[in-house]
Amino acid sequence: MKPKAATVADRSTLDYYDSQAINVARTITALEAWTIITEQTSPLMRLAFRIRDAISTVFGVRRIEGFSGARWDNVSVGDHLDFFLVENIQPDILVLTARDRHLDVMTCVTTSTDSVSITASVITKNIFGKFYMLPVGLAHRRIVRNSLRKLKQSLDGDPTRTRSAGG
């Protein structure tokens, strides 16, 4: 049974919500899915993170510098996966948050025996947060769609690919 995706607030109060899923050929953990997705960041994503940091730091938002490409094997609540705080970790759910004075962001990865879903939810707290989410919201859907496609290709291309990923 697939777990219910967590959101940063009740869906009716969110300023941004997106949930996408793919079917996969084998069961993987939520942490394994996240690690595969983030271990190889494209040059375009790295550029997007650099642009984000250059603009956001002018408004007092800390640099996030993108994904490190680290392989995460054992993660606990309270740990950080790059710029995200781990709020929940189970084999079939990974809940990550990033909060600052402009936004509350939650990314939730859920898995079942034959699918992987990524759900993103955001509350904007001020005008900068609202403006920030205009381009990010549009780009985020495409980024997640491409990330899930690459995850599927990775798993389909290497059906023996397996690692221990725990929580």
Topology:
Elements: E1 16-23, H1 30-38, H2 43-58, E2 80-81, E3 84-90, E4 93-99, E5 103-111, E6 115-124, H3 127-157
Antiparallel strand pairs: 1-6, 2-3, 3-4, 4-5, 5-6
Helix pairs in contact: 1-3
Protein name: DUF2867 domain-containing protein
InterPro entries: DUF2867
Could you explain how this protein is built, in words?
This protein is of the alpha+beta class and 167 residues long. It has a single domain (11-157), classed as 2-Layer Sandwich (Alpha-D-Glucose-1,6-Bisphosphate, Chain A, domain 4). It is 34% helix and 26% strand. It has three helices and six strands. The chain has helices at 30-38, 43-58, 127-157; strands at residues 16-23, 80-81, 84-90, 93-99, 103-111, 115-124. The chain has a six-stranded antiparallel β-sheet with strand order 1-6-5-4-3-2. The radius of gyration is 16 Å and the shape is globular. This is DUF2867 domain-containing protein. Pfam families: DUF2867.
